[in-house]
Write a structure and sequence with these properties.
Elements: E1 4-9, H1 17-32, E2 36-42, E3 52-54, H2 60-71, H3 81-89, E4 94-97, H4 107-113, E5 119-122, H5 163-177, E6 181-185, H6 188-196, E7 204-206, H7 221-228, E8 236-243, H8 251-261, E9 264-270, E10 279-281, H9 288-297, E11 300-303, H10 312-319, E12 324-327, H11 332-335, E13 343-344, H12 349-362, H13 365-372, H14 379-383, H15 387-403
Parallel strand pairs: 1-2, 1-4, 2-3, 4-5, 5-6, 6-7, 8-9, 8-11, 9-10, 11-12, 12-13
Helix pairs in contact: 7-9, 8-12
């Protein structure tokens, strides 16, 4: 029986939220779908195995950063990446692309090559909708053609304003390949953006990112603290970003929350150029096991982002039983349970610090100890404060624990 062959393309296979989401999805499809042959292609390295193939080109990243800043993303010189990729995927049936704006491929050549077969494109940010930036934040000029970009510093940064030209180029491409493209958005917020960009609602599908519940789970806090070198008697707040220098992610706001709450901050990701007091910096972490330890070692996760699509860190933290607090921006709203009052107005770090401090003060040591004793626990149960509801929820969790199948990746959404 001939298998359906799916080629997954993303900038990297380990670094960044898009890569993590792509890998979990591909591995789940590979495990559960016997009639599908799926493989991932990326530019992170040149390693090749049964699951992924790296097509890294020396100097490509550095040179294309310069080209993009001068001429725009449409003028990436990929050093033969697409040509080599064509040889690998020519026999495939479906192309599933994730991030294609990471200085590594000429997306025009790729789409022109694949003009006769289905394309699934997962939007992990707004780049597909805008003239050039991954997140427009408070700017809505993308709805009218990006005629003048006032934020050339937004990633991917530019020195010359080519936003309007790139917008028109994408418009032309979308009209050419509209019949073959399905847009997948992890959040309803991004779905709305894709429709506003001109895609028909029946060509845009919202599918939440999956996470592996064997990688992200509740473990004993004392063990987690010991593994990452933290004091279990100290209250910690966690902030995670690929790059803490990315203003959009809110490192400065996190610092304000740490200062106002009097709690110890933990930052994971590329350290900022100017480190703030009260925050311990642990650098880049790509290991799921290590990330799981950080989630379990802290009291709360803080996501004070100005705009984000569907942060994996939020779901991972929930899976580890660690409550999340943040701004009501982007896709965070759809991720947060209706009954959990964890969000405040974007930019109001005073209200955020107050909400976190109240949570820390009200949560009893008995409650924490009881909940941390479970080997599998939902985010909802962890955040319950009313003692008379704990027993009922505990029984539900025990049932889930007993029916958990450890032989397969657990990738169902955590929205229930």
């Amino acid at each position: 029986m001939k298998k359906l062959k799916v080629a997954v393309v993303n900038t990297t296979k380990n670094r960044g939220g898009a890569a993590r989401a792509a890998v979990v999805l591909a591995r789940a499809v590979s495990y559960y779908c016997e009639k599908v042959d799926i493989k991932m292609f990326h530019a992170e390295d040149n390693e090749n195995d049964s699951f992924s193939t790296g097509v890294r080109k020396p100097l490509s990243n550095v040179i294309n950063i310069l080209l993009t800043r001068l001429l725009g993303s449409a003028n990436v010189y990929d050093f033969g990446f697409v040509k080599q990729l064509k040889r690998y995927i020519n026999s495939y049936d479906i192309l599933h692309i994730h991030n294609i704006h990471g200085y590594y491929l000429n997306f025009i050549q790729l789409l022109q090559f694949w003009d006769d077969r289905p394309v699934v494109w997962t939007w992990h940010d707004m780049w597909g909708a805008t003239g050039r930036c991954a997140y427009s934040r408070k700017c809505n000029l993308w709805q009218n053609g990006c005629h003048k970009c006032n934020h050339l510093g937004y990633y991917p940064a530019a020195w010359v304003d080519n936003a309007a030209c790139e917008f028109r180029l994408k418009e032309k491409l979308y009209k050419t390949f509209l019949a073959n493209v399905i847009i997948v958005t992890p959040s309803p917020w991004m779905n709305d953006i894709a429709v506003k960009r001109g895609f028909s609602p029946d060509r845009v599908i919202t599918i939440p990112n999956a996470i592996d519940l064997e990688d992200f789970r509740v473990i004993d806090r004392n063990i987690a603290c010991r593994k990452v070198g933290l004091d279990p008697d100290t209250h910690y707040l966690l902030f995670i970003a690929a790059d803490c220098n990315d203003i959009r992610k809110g490192y400065n706001e996190f610092s304000d929350v740490v200062s106002l709450s009097g709690l110890q901050g933990i930052a994971v990701g590329l350290p900022p150029k100017f480190k703030k007091e009260g925050i311990l910096h642990f650098g880049m972490v790509t290991s799921n096991e290590e990330l799981c330890n950080y989630y379990n070692a802290v009291d709360a996760m803080v996501i004070p982002t100005e705009a984000d699509n569907y942060p994996n860190t939020m779901r991972e933290s929930m899976a580890c039983g660690t409550p999340v607090f943040g701004y009501d921006s982007g896709g965070l709203v759809s991720l947060m349970p209706d009954w959990w009052d964890g969000l405040v107005a974007t930019g109001d770090f005073n209200a955020l610090a107050k909400k976190i401090s109240m949570f820390i003060d009200e949560r009893s040591e008995e409650h924490t100890s009881e909940l941390q004793s479970h080997s599998f626990i939902s985010y909802a149960v962890f955040c319950l404060k009313k003692k008379n509801k704990r027993k009922k929820k505990k029984n539900k969790i025990t049932q889930k624990k007993n029916t958990k199948n450890h032989s397969a990746p657990h990738t169902r959404p955590l929205d229930e």
